[in-house]
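Problem statement: downstream parser choked on a complex file, so we are re-checking the raw output for the uridine-5'-diphosphate run. The parser issue turned out to be on our end (a line-ending mismatch), but while we're here, posting the original submission so the record is complete.
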Amino acid sequence: MQQGEKLYEGKAKILYATNDPTLVIQYFKDDATAFNAQKRGTIVDKGVCNNLISCALFQYLESRGVPTHFVRKLDDRSMLVKRLGIIPLEVTMRNITAGGMSRLLGIDEGMVLQRPVFEWHYKSDPLGDPLINDDHILALGAATPQELAALRSQSERINQLLKEYFSARGIDLVDFKLEFGRLATGAGQPPGPGQGTILLGDEISPDTCRFWEQGTRRKLDKDRFRRDLGDVEAAYQEMVKRVVGPAGSSTAATASGKPTAV
Ligand code: UDP
């Protein structure tokens, strides 16, 4: 697969064209941002970790019948994916209170929710990805009612599958963010609302999920960077071991061999 021109550079990834208009290369950088890019830094080998973790999780979801953009891993930092017209919505699924939900409702982090919480956020950096509801999306024509129903049921199934996957590896899946897109046509054109098959896109990684070690509640995700908790690289390496290693590897040591702070 030939790498072509740079199509898009985001905060953590770069998309490159290929010689096939329906396929693109997703390259993972080490750059880290938080709080709407007000905090910036580098997490050594984050790109390698997030590529490995995302490849493994997309393969797992595909094996359980969830349609994703994943085609195959190309190298340490890149995967080949189907070209999508990204729907400008972020789905957040929550199983335990943390982050935005705790701030919004003034509640402590760490409450196990009685049922998962599904949220839509409008994807907009200048606006800080505001929380929106179905009516906003339908009134603006960003997606059809059928698409919203499909996105919701796919997200709920993904949450169930990922919760099981991580639980078998000693990790509580606290919350995560998903992005979906509509599959581009033969010429690579992104379809509009109501057109094209919907696939899960983007990444699933410690940048986009909150992972807490079962029992200790040690944070193994980007909150270590956001909140200056230290041992950031070790947390990403630890998640690689948990995800890529066999189920039941819940007692895996940290990359440094030392336990890290909660
Ligand atoms: N998240 C993300 N990108 C964003 C915002 C959130 O990947 O732009 C992820 C985040 O890592 C967490 C989940 O979505 O796993 C829920 O984030 P939340 O709404 O609590 O916001 P935060 O506290 O991160 O600002």
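For whoever reads this later: The domain at 85-231 is CATH 3.30.470.20 (D-amino Acid Aminotransferase; Chain A, domain 1).
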